[in-house]
Amino acid sequence: MLRRFSLILLLALTAHGAWAERIKDLATVAGVRSNQLVGYGLVVGLTGTGDQTTQTPFTVKSLKSMLSNLGVTVPPEVNLQLKNVAAVSVQAELPPFAKPGQTIDVTVSSIGNAKSLRGGSLLMAPLKGADGAVYAIAQGNVVVGGLGAEAGGSKVIVNVPSAGRIPNGATVERQVPDTFGGEGPIVLNLRQADFTTAERLVEAVNKAFGGDVARAVDATSVEVQGPADRNQRVSLIAVLENIEVVPAQGTAKIIVNSRTGTVVIGQNVKVGPAAVSHGNLTVTITPDPFVSQPAPFSGGRTVAIPNANVSVNQEKKPMFLFNPGVALNDIVQAVNQVGASPSDLVAILEALKAAGALKAELIVI
């Protein structure tokens, strides 16, 4: 009997641990965040796929301004007709604690009418933050995953050739100030707000450290008492982020993508008592014109008279019954039995929601 109880307890602990997640995967540390950078630059070296300067005059002005800063003066009356230059926007994400001298990836996107950036090189472009300060400098060869070809009035485009990336294409020049080593507690923000998960996180932290070192502020934030020394805070967070917590089950939701027909049904979706009958009505119209041929020497004309054959076919689908508290597995099996397509499934779910039998939130995106 004792051996059987131990086996059941071991299976329960194993199942409990299988659903546990690290705090690192459930929450983020307040103040430890990335920052978006944006800039403007020129991509040169294109093989005739750059901006059409007659329609994008800002490309010519940018090039003249750059040449002027390099000591090359272009007379104002000279109208440059360049096909190997493209004006682009440069975007990057500055990771937290990035130091000067480190490199980050950048994304380059055409803002003119350039057909492709393949084979081009980005000239030095400053990247600014929301405060207007320069935090990185970008430059390098653009890697484009798409391609385009045009000949004889035909055009083929694969992916997006007017955008590309530069791996390690920007060098960090300035560090973003942070308050990581300041006074006050360490705040953990859940990626998904949930009161139950926040309470379980507090219990797990207090159990790991002993005492009341953590407290929940709301459904998102949990405060943990921490030292002011940066080194000790790093050590504390290293321990915190590896503590395992069993997250609460999410609310019952059904997500429907109206464009692709994708339907995702959550784990806790329940259906009340309801009977559903679903069938497809197919109407087929087949053109069947016939020719009216007049008698010989009657002076009549041969004419084609339009005609069509119309047939109606309605598939006989069985009616299925949902008992009270039906779970996800039963819903999927019942829908598969009637052979409903994703669009038909959406109609069934909307009807169940309208009837008050669907115990879930139906979200159409």
Task: Give the tally of β-strands.
Answer: 25
From the helix content, strand content and strand pairing, which structural class follows?
Answer: alpha+beta
Low-confidence stretches: 1-18, 281-285
Q: State the share of residues found in helices, binned by percent.
A: 10-25%
Q: Major sheet: size, sense and barrel closure?
A: 6 strands, antiparallel, barrel
| Number of separate domains | 3
Give the mean pLDDT.
77
How large is the count of helical segments? 7
Assembly state: single chain
What share of the residues does DSSP label as strand, in percent? 25-35%
The coarse silhouette is: flat
Could you provide a short overview of the structure?
The chain is of the alpha+beta class and 365 residues long.
List keywords for this structure.
single chain, 365 residues, alpha+beta, 3 domains, six-stranded antiparallel barrel, 7 helices, 25 strands, 35% strand, disordered N terminus
SSE topology sketch:
Layout: H1 2-18, E1 21-22, H2 23-26, E2 27-29, E3 35-44, H3 57-69, E4 85-94, E5 103-110, E6 121-128, E7 134-141, E8 147-151, E9 154-158, E10 163-172, E11 186-190, H4 195-209, E12 214-216, E13 221-224, H5 230-240, E14 244-245, E15 253-256, E16 263-265, E17 270-271, E18 274-277, E19 281-287, E20 290-292, E21 303-305, E22 308-314, E23 319-322, H6 328-337, H7 342-354, E24 358-359, E25 361-364
Parallel strand pairs: 15-25
Antiparallel strand pairs: 1-14, 2-11, 3-4, 3-6, 4-5, 5-10, 6-7, 7-10, 8-9, 11-13, 12-13, 15-16, 17-24, 18-23, 19-22, 20-21
